[in-house]
C-alpha cells in the first residue's frame, strides 16, 4: 500500500486524525480520545497489520505533553508515526497500549518516570529509572534541578 492509500485508509478509520507532510513516512496526530480506536484498527485490520511497535517516546512540546509511537507492519513493509497529545500538564493521562503491544509496558514506565504522563490501565505503572524519593520530571522543559543544574 502506498503512502497516499495508507493515509486514506487511516483517515477512514478515524476521520479526526491530522496527517503531517514532509516526513520520510506517514505521520499523523490523533486526538487522545481516539488513540485506542486507532491503534486497535492499525493492528487488527488485515491490510494494515501494524504488528510491531518499534518504539514510543514521551515528548514535552511546551504547552502539551504527549507520546510519539512508531509502528511497522512486518507483513506489508509500511511504517507509521502516530502522535498523541494532552494539554493537561498538571495531570497528564493517556491510554496504555501495552495490552496491544507488550513491549510498550517498559516504554510507558519510562515516560511516566521521566515526564509524568500516566497511562490508564497500565498493569505496573511505577518508576523505572529514578529513585522513589525523586521529585519532579527531569525531561520536562520546566524542570529545575537545584543540585545538578546546567544552564545553556
Comma- or semicolon-separated keywords:
7 strands, elongated, 3 helices, 25% strand, 152 residues, two-stranded parallel sheet, 22% helix, single chain, five-stranded mixed sheet, Beta Polymerase, domain 2, alpha/beta
3D structure, described in words:
With 152 residues, the protein is of the alpha/beta class. The chain is built from 3 helices and 7 strands. The protein has helices spanning 3-13, 35-44, 104-115; strands at 18-20, 26-29, 52-60, 65-72, 79-86, 93-95, 118-120. Strands 1-2-5-4-3 form a 5-stranded mixed sheet. Strands 6-7 form a two-stranded parallel ribbon. The mean pLDDT is 93.
What's the layout of helices and strands?
Layout: H1 3-13, E1 18-20, E2 26-29, H2 35-44, E3 52-60, E4 65-72, E5 79-86, E6 93-95, H3 104-115, E7 118-120
Parallel strand pairs: 2-5, 6-7
Antiparallel strand pairs: 1-2, 3-4, 4-5
Q: Estimate the global geometry from the Cα principal axes.
A: elongated
Helix fraction, binned, reads 10-25%
SSE order, one letter for each helix or strand: HEEHEEEEHE
- The named CATH superfamily: NADH:ubiquinone oxidoreductase Nqo5 subunit
Radius of gyration: 16 Å
Per the CATH scheme, the topology name is Beta Polymerase, domain 2
- What's the total helix number? 3
How many extended strands?
7
Strand order of the largest sheet: 1-2-5-4-3
Largest sheet: 5 strands, mixed
Structural class: alpha/beta
CATH architecture: 2-Layer Sandwich
Q: What is the terminal-to-terminal distance?
A: 45 Å
Determine the strand fraction and express it as a percent band. Answer: 25-35%
